[in-house]
Every structure is written in C-alpha cells, then in structure tokens.
Amino acid sequence: MAEKHVYKDAPISASVFNELNRLVWGPNLKEDVFRRWSQGFVFSEDEPTALVQFEGGPCAIIAPLQGFLLKYAIFKYGDVNWRFVSTYEASLFLIHAMTEILQQCSSKSYYVAYMPTSTPDLKLADDDESSGSSYNNQDDIPKSEEENFRTNLRLARVEGLEEVDSIYRTTMNVLDQQFGVLSFLYSVLLTKGISQVKNEMEDPNEPLIDGTYGHGSQCLINLMLTGKACSNVWDNDKDISGLKLRGISTQSSVGFLTLLEHLRYCEVGWFLKCPEYPIWVIGSETHLTVLFAKERGLCSPETPEAAARRIFKSYDPEGNNFISTILLGDVLCALDLVADAEYVEVMKQKLDSEGLGIILLNTFMEEFYPDEGRSAVPEKFILYHYNGLKRSCPNGKVKFAEGNATIYEEDLKCVADATPVLTCLQTKWPSIEVNWSSDVAPSII
Asked: Which residues belong to any copy of the Deubiquitinating enzyme MINDY-3/4 conserved domain (predicted)?
C-alpha cells in the first residue's frame, strides 16, 4: 500500500499524493474549494490563543485544533494568564496540540508534511514509482495553487513525538503560511495510514471534504478528535440488521456536541459528550465552533449509573429506550451484575409484568440503580465560546465570548430564548441557561 513507502525530508511521490487527493477531495478537485482550504494557522489580533478562519470549510481542522490548543493553554501549564500569552507561547500550544492529534492516530511512527522555509531540489527517497513524476523539477512553473502545494510539500517520517515537536518548532515560521492547514491534514492522514482511514469509514468512496461546499465530513472531525475515522458519534459499534456501524470507543480529550442531535438526526454518545477536559467542538449544519470552561468539575468520571445507561443503549441500536427481554441476561453480564439463568427469568417477569417482550430503560434503572442522583456538576460556572470566522463575530473580531451558565434542577425547564448555541448545549445539560456578557448569544454558524 502507498503509505508503506518510507520518506525522509523528501517530496511526496505522485502516486501517494494522488491517493491522498482522492481520499480528501474525491475525483474532482474544485479550485474554489482548494483555495478556501489554503490558509495557515493564524492567531487573532484580539485574542492571542484564538485561531482565525478566513473562509468556510477548514473548520473541520481548525476547530478541533483550537480545542486541543486550549487544553494546553488552560490546563497543562498551571493557571497562566491564557488570554494574554505571547505569539511564541501560543505557537507552542499549537504545536503541542498538533503533536497530540498525530499521537492519537499512531503508536509507532509519524509522518509530518510541511512546507519548507526554502524550496531546495530534494530528491525522493526509496520510491521506485516516481520515475515518471515531474513534481521534483523546481524549474516548472506551477499551473495552480494545488500544483504549487503538490510541488513544494515535503514529508518526514519520524519515530518519536520529540522529533515531531522538533520539526514543527523548526518550521514554526511557515505554519501560518498559505498551506499550513492542508499540510497538517495530510500529516494526519499519512500518520493514520490511507488504507486504515478507508477501513474505518463507512463509505471509503466518500471524500473527507465535500467537493461542492468544502465542508469536512464527520469522519474527518472524528479523526481529528479521537484518532478514529468513523462516521458516527454514538458510543461503541452497533449492529443494525446485520450491518456493523462503528462508533466512538473511548473517552476523548476534547468532546463534541451538535445541533443535529436536537433535530434528531443523530445521538451523541457519552464518550464525546463527557470528554476528559471541559472543551467541546460544537457542530451546526454548516460550521464548527468551540465551547469551553475552566471548571474541571464539568468532566467528572463516568458514574455507575451513566455506565449502565450507556451499556443498556448499546443493546438498543435504534434508540427506542427499551430492549427485548431476551437481552436482559447479556446486559446484566456486561454490567457485572448477577446474571444466572434463574435470576434473569425472575427479573424478566418483574420488569416486563405485562408480557410485552420489552424492558424499558427507566424501569431497568429504577430496579437496579434506585439511588441514581444528580452528578456533582457545578451549578454555576463561566462558559467561553470560540468562532474562528471573522464574519460571524461581533465587529469582525475573533474573540472568546463569555457567559455565566446556570444548571437548574432537571425538572425545571429553562425559559430563556432558544438560541442555536443554547439548544446545542441543552443536548448535554437540558436545564442549562447562559447569560452572555454581550447580551447577544454567540453565533455557531
């Protein structure tokens, strides 16, 4: 397979580049879409740790990276004044974020694609397929931005994360140049392995970037957040009519919430709703933004009750909030509860007293977890929201919006106006209310 070729500080071969392009863009790459993705990692003049997105499309890379960057800015270096760091410090946070995302994709070796500070006439190493390639001739005049990218992009294969960090520090001055975002995208795909990305996708013929609108697919978003290129956001794999559909299998560092869940197009599982850090990428129909807080108590470990709900739902792939009585024994086994045949039969009779052949989730929880209470989530905390698009920000300034959040008792319904950002938040906290300091809810589009 193409990703098995070994490169060291060399151009990417024509065969590998073409395979990457098909995976990313599909059979027909539109110049306009490529142009919108051709931007570097640029920090806002008004918010030192906020990345700027110039046009629609690359939020599928920028928003997850922003989430990981905030993890380092806020949580990894003590309570530094993360809103007033130097450009150099912000760049180091970015490099840490990029390195961690690559680490999620591989435990062995890493590929770093980058634009050199100059364009020396490097020759391709160990590639017999490159004899017919004209991409090494630096005298050729690029016919398009895509060919300019193809001609100058370099690739290094390294064995350790320290080397990844070193390369990014060495090339720090070009990360904000025209192809910074695309270089990192190609690094992620090569580190993961082209064939492995395709294996994890439900439809490997679907490009990672929509050819018409330039939006990144859920596969690409999940790959950035978790290192897995699956198409779904639920917990674990589901078997629907004999078809295995992959989901998220572990808790992520940065989470994901989406307006599409409110619209009932999907259900985000516990692993993405409850990440290790209180940082969530927020999905609307067309854009990705980031919501975050400094309160670590928002990310408490999974309770036995939450685990029970998650496991019960794994046997309910259609989301009906009930299971067939014949699955009760399997659920009890998965939860390490008593599951001998005699006991299971007794519980079937009790939980399905009407003989309907089903057991409701609420009935199950009341029987086995009667003391389920509210988790120890803070009732009041400060939320921040990031939107990298200047046109979506007040006065065209990319700054973090700040709001005071309150989580009420779950039987109290929030009476605040249902803005898109609040509606999205309520998929995690149904009774949350947020008073934004600007009196205007931030845009998630």
From this structure: 21-352
